Every structure is written in structure tokens, then in C-alpha cells.
Amino acid sequence: MRPKGMVSNPAAGDVTPAVLAIGRADFPNILIDTLRRQAGVGHCMVFALTRAGAARCLLDAGNIPIGGDLGAAYAGQFHESDPNRDALFEAEGDAPIMLPSFAPRMYGARYRKIFFNDSGIVDKCATAIWTGDTCFYVNFYRIAAQGRFGDEQCRRLGAIAPAIAAIVARHFQGSATPDQTLAALFATRAPLADLTPREREVCHRILLGFSSEAISRGLGISLHSTLTYRKRAYERLGISSQNELFGIVLRLLSGPHGPN
After folding, report:
1. In this predicted model, what pLDDT tens digit does every residue of 124-173 receive, in sequence order?
2. Do residues 104 and 116 lie in contact, with contact meaning Cβ atoms separated by under 8 Å?
């Protein structure tokens, strides 16, 4: 149940629900719901690939009935013939990457039959992020009943994909609750740790999805004070919006150390 005053119906580009679901059992459902609303994604699958050659299907959510079978087949052998494999393994650093646009000719006949023809998949986009020796490979699909991604959907998916990759990586790296994860970031990681105690409290609650009114009630301060602390915090961080505040958190989460 959402606390009173919490934000609902996120705006375009807002991946707040997925951030708040990190570490929760309902993360797959929240993720695909966010992707569906933001960019019309029908199905999402996440694979963990290692430089040693191992592959696992970590997440299978959406509207493809045989998604579980496809995930098992990919992890079992077909990851070795994925045309995106070279781009994935040539990537360096810990920044999210976008993979080439989907084209059927990229895939061999057997791969194409199993993963596209038999499943009804007509379009695919993908992003990935390396954390240590593990690559979290996030795939977004559309089936025949939906048609291919439109230009606007591709634009929106491209805009949120780096954040989605970081969110997915953080979810599968640990089991801390969003509140615990944020508390660790505010306590130990610059620039969040450089804020004053009250600025940290306000920003922490913003990231948990509370409205300014709910923050004021929770902290026992006036709405004017809450807005003042938010303004000062944003100035100190060099940002001007909630989305940019989330961007700072996602960069910290996807960095080599995550929350300490």
C-alpha cells in the first residue's frame, strides 16, 4: 500500500516505481509495468553473462507465453550465437550500453526460428551493464499483436534504458530494501553525503516517492521549509529536478562500488 501523498502515475521517463521495487519479490512485475507504460514494451528478459562463459536467465516477465522456455534455451546454448555477443564482451567500464537495433538478418536461421518465428516476437531492443565480471543483459520485446516499436517508443526506451540497466543490476546484486540502499548512499557517498542532515532527509523522502506535503508531515516542518530544503539541496547538487536526483542515485548504484 502506497503511503499517503506518494507519487502515482509517473510521467514520461520516470522509472521511480522500478527503483522503489529493488530488492522486492514483485520487482519483475513492477519492472515490466514501468516499461509497458513508458515505452510500450511487451516482454522483458534479463540474462547474466560472465567472462568465463556462463549464462543464466534472471528475469522473464510480460506477454510471451513461452518466455521461460526461451530463457532456458538462450542460457543453455544460444547465448554463444547471439549477434550482440561481441558488442557485449567488447564493452569496457561500468557504463550502460545500448545494443544495435534489431534486424532479422542479424540472426542465424535456427536462432531466428526459435526466438522470433515460433514465439511471435517481431521487434527487440536491448541494453546491458557490466558490474565486475558479470554482464546484466536486458532485452525488451514486442510481439506480433503489438507490432514493432514506433519511433517515439524507441526514443523513450533509449532515454530510460541506461537507468533500467542500472536498476536491474542493483536488484540482482543484493537484497537490501530501497530505504536501506538510499540510507547507505546518503551516509557514505558524495555528493549525497555532502548535504546537510535536513537536506538529506528531504531528498531521501523525495526518492522514496513522497510528495512535499507528505514530507512536511513526516518531518514535522512546514511546507515552506520543505521546499526551501529541497531548493538548497538541488543547488548544492547542481540539479533542478527530481529526475536529475534519481540520475545521481542511479550513477552511484551502477558504479563499481555501489552503496558502501
Report:
1. 999 999 988 899 999 999 999 999 999 999 999 998 998 899 889 888 98
2. yes
Main-chain phi, psi angles of 156, to 5 degrees: -70, -40
For residue 176, how far is the Cα from the chain centroid? 16
pLDDT tens by residue, 82-93: 999 999 998 877
Name 59's bridge partners: 46
Q: How far apart are CA 56 and CA 71, in angstroms?
A: 8
Q: How crowded is residue 216: how many other Cβ atoms within 10 Å of its Cβ? A: 20
Place of cell 514465439: 119
d(CA 227, CA 194): 19
Task: Report how far residue 44's alpha carbon sits from residue 67's, in angstroms, rounded to the nearest whole number.
Answer: 9
For residue 62, report the phi and psi dihedrals to the nearest 5 degrees.
140, -145
Helix, strand, coil tally for the chain in percent (to 5):
50, 15, 35
CA distance 164 to 157: 9
Nearest of 102, 96, 91 to residue 125 by alpha carbon: 102
Cα Rg of the chain, angstroms:
20
| Furthest C-alpha separation in the chain | 64
113 CB-side CA count, 13 A: 2
Q: Which value, to the nearest 10 degrees, does the dihedral of the CA atoms of residues 213, 216, 220, 222 take?
A: -100
